[in-house]
Design a protein that fits this description.
mainly alpha, three-stranded parallel beta sheet, two-stranded parallel ribbon, binds adenosine-5'-diphosphate, binds tryptophan
């Protein structure tokens, strides 16, 4: 069984990315052949600074390896090191109906947010993004694709494209399945919305100590006194975040708030401590890796070589199917 997923290098990774995407991917390394890549081509639809892309790409590599991605158990590479994916994307685009792409939420949402509502100013890459994502997946005969709920529709598009190509040119691609872990609650941000880079409400996995403490201590609470019992303790943001990091301790604090007698300051202090300790091993691992970039680049280069060998085989099969050989 081949498991494949990608993560965009579009900014510092946060607790939502960690619990929603990275940790499940790290666990899945035990279940099959894990193929994970840094989606730097995808990031071009939104990020236009070359130096930033380079930096974020390295950051994702460091973050992922520090958090437990094991190069001995998985293939890990930069998307652009396997350029065959762009060739396949073109081929797939010729069997992709425009209507299918127009219906994608990711695209529709971007257009809806435009001040002038003019679709003409959206770049073609953003429109065609699900086709590149389909190529990412189909190029490796992937069976299982672990993603967050927001990517479900893109996986449906991928399946549609694979089926369409297979009908047109004969059985060529494996039709993949999404693996969406519904039990991973959406991690809330420090403002109560979904934690997201685009909302500026994140707690970064490798945030700087002082700044992160300040962020956590700054989470806005209501004005009830510590003594007052709080029957709605489960809705408390700090309790929710604490539960994500340590379920037992989160429940303990929920009870304490419910009964009354515990101040919000103590709760937030605990949240920071637990967060800081939780990532302590990964933090020192990351520092080690950052001091050994040759090793990190070596992992990515080896990954690219392995990924490319698989990609070439599948691409040759696809080219033969449609008479490009
Ligand atoms: P962001 O919203 O910060 O831009 P991405 O869209 O790049 O994050 O998401 C990368 C991965 O992390 C996806 O698989 C996504 O489902 C997951 N993810 C992002 N934010 C959260 C969250 N708050 N809770 C759970 N999973 C999340
Ligand atoms: N679109 C995904 C995201 O924004 C990242 C991604 C690109 C991906 N290609 C992929 C995920 C292929 C899974 C499989 O989160």
């Amino acid at each position: 069984m081949r498991i494949l997923t990608g993560i965009q290098p579009s900014g510092a990774l946060h607790l939502g990315n960690y619990f929603g995407a990275m940790l499940p991917a790290i666990h899945l390394q035990q279940e099959g052949e894990a193929f994970y890549f840094i989606a730097n081509y995808h990031s071009m639809t939104s990020l236009t600074d070359a130096a930033q892309r380079r930096q974020f790409t390295l950051d994702v590599a460091l973050d992922f390896l520090a958090c437990g991605l094991d190069p001995a158990r998985c293939v890990f590479w930069r998307q652009s090191d396997v350029p065959e994916v762009a060739e396949l994307a073109w081929m797939l685009s010729t069997v992709t109906p425009m209507g299918l792409l127009r219906r994608c939420h990711s695209y529709k949402d971007k257009v809806a947010k435009l001040a002038d509502g003019d679709e003409g100013s959206v770049n073609h890459g953003l429109f065609a993004y699900p086709v590149l994502m389909a190529a990412d997946i189909l190029l490796f005969d992937s069976n299982i694709v672990p993603v967050g709920r927001d990517q479900k529709q893109h996986l449906e598009v991928t399946r549609d494209i694979a089926i369409k190509f297979n009908e047109q040119y004969g059985q060529t691609f494996v039709v993949p399945e999404a693996r969406i872990r519904e039990e991973v609650a959406l991690v809330p941000g420090i403002d109560g919305q979904k934690m997201s880079k685009s909302y500026g409400n994140t707690i970064e996995i490798f945030g700087e100590e002082k700044a992160t403490r300040k962020k956590i201590m700054g989470i806005v609470m209501d004005s009830r006194t510590p003594q007052e019992p709080k029957p709605d303790a489960d809705k408390n943001l700090a309790v929710q975040l604490l539960k994500v990091l340590n379920a037992d301790l989160g429940k303990e604090f929920e009870e304490k708030l419910r009964t009354g007698g515990t101040g919000y300051g103590d709760l937030k202090k605990k949240l920071f401590e637990v967060y800081w300790e939780y990532f302590a091993p990964a933090r020192s691992k990351r520092a080690e890796l950052a001091a050994n970039l040759d090793y990190v680049n070596g992992v990515l280069d080896t990954g690219a070589e392995k990924a490319r060998a698989v990609a070439r085989g599948v691409l040759a099969r696809a080219k033969q199917a449609c008479g490009l050989d």
